[in-house]
Design a protein that fits this description.
CATH architecture: Orthogonal Bundle
Order of helices and strands: HHHHHHH
Oligomer: single chain
Helix content: over 70%
Distance between the termini: 11 Å
CATH topology: Arp2/3 complex 21 kDa subunit ARPC3
CATH class: Mainly Alpha
Length: about 160
C-alpha cells in the first residue's frame, strides 16, 4: 500500500515539474493548457476512493499553491473537494472507465473553475471570474477530457500491478 502511494506521489511530483517547464507552455492553446494535476487527482480518487482522493488532492493542491505563489490553500481546497467527490463516485459507478473518465474530468474541470472563481471573488478580487472568460474553461475541459483516458489507464495499471 505504501509503495503504491509512493509511486503516485512520484507521478504527481513529475507532473508538477513538467507543468513548470517551457515544454508545457508549448502545448497550450490560446494560453490555456490541460491541468495534469487535476486529472491525476481525479484518476487516483476514482480508483482509490474518497479518503485517498482527499489526501492526494490536498497534497497536490498545497504543493501547486506553494510553487505558483498564488493564494495559499486555493488549489489545496479545490483539489481536496474534487478528490473527495470523485472518490465517492468511483465506488458507485461501473462501466468502461475510458469513456467515464472523459465525462468525469470534463465535469470536474467545471467544478474546479466554479470553486476557484467563488473563492477568488471572496479572497482575491470581488467579481473575479477569470476562468469563465473567453471560453477558457470550456477549452480546458475539452483538453482535460481528451487526455484523461491516458491518466486513468496509468493509475489503473499501477493499482492492479501493486495490489495484485
Amino acid at each position: 500500500m505504501l509503495k503504491k502511494y509512493a509511486i503516485f506521489l512520484f507521478i504527481i511530483g513529475a507532473l508538477i515539474v513538467f507543468q513548470s517547464t517551457f515544454v508545457y507552455n508549448s502545448i497550450t492553446v490560446r494560453d490555456v493548457g490541460p491541468d495534469f494535476l487535476m486529472i491525476i487527482v481525479v484518476a487516483i480518487s476514482f480508483f482509490l476512493g474518497s479518503v485517498s482522493g482527499e489526501i492526494f488532492g490536498f497534497i497536490t493542491g498545497i504543493i501547486a499553491d506553494i510553487i505558483s505563489g498564488g493564494l495559499l490553500g486555493l488549489s489545496a481546497f479545490t483539489y481536496t473537494v474534487i478528490g473527495y467527490g470523485v472518490g465517492l463516485l468511483g465506488n458507485k459507478i461501473y462501466g468502461n472507465y475510458y469513456i467515464l473518465s472523459i465525462f468525469i474530468v470534463f465535469v470536474a474541470t467545471f467544478v474546479k473553475a466554479l470553486i476557484m472563481a467563488m473563492l477568488g471573488s471572496l479572497f482575491i478580487k470581488p467579481g473575479y471570474f477569470g476562468f469563465f472568460t473567453h471560453g477558457r474553461i470550456f477549452l480546458e475541459a475539452v483538453m482535460n477530457g481528451v487526455i484523461s483516458p491516458l491518466f486513468f489507464l496509468i493509475v489503473y495499471k499501477i493499482e492492479n500491478r501493486v495490489t495484485g
